[in-house]
Amino acid sequence: MMFTKEEKSWIDNASIYALLYKWRFSPSGDMYFQNKERADYHLKVMNEKRDKDNAAYVSASKSMGW
Which domain does 44 fall in, by range? Predict the structure, then answer.
């Protein structure tokens, strides 16, 4: 794993809103997403949470204005 246990724990425990917000509003070139393994894991967990509760995902997305 190329990212810390703390980062993995944050991703695992973050709400769908927090994951989606970070994905959408991090600035271009953000170092968080420059780590491919961490970015891939973030996307994997975010998609799993979306698939588990699509209504929460849609609600989070709409609350962000998307």
Answer: 5-63
